[in-house]
Amino acid sequence: MTTLLDVHTHTVASGHAYSSLQEMVQAAADKHLQVLGITEHGPSIPGTCPLLYFHNAHVIPRQLQGVRLLIGCEINILDTKGTLDLSEEYRRKLDIRIAGIHGQCWQGGTIEENTQAMISVIRTPGINIISHPGDGTAALLFEPIVLAAKEAHTLLEINNHSLSPFRTKTEARANNLEILRLCKRYEVPLILGSDAHISYQIADYDRILPLLAETDFPEELIMNHQPDRFFQYTGI
Question: What is the 3-state secondary structure of 97-117?
Answer without folding.
Answer: EEEECCHHHCECCCHHHHHHH
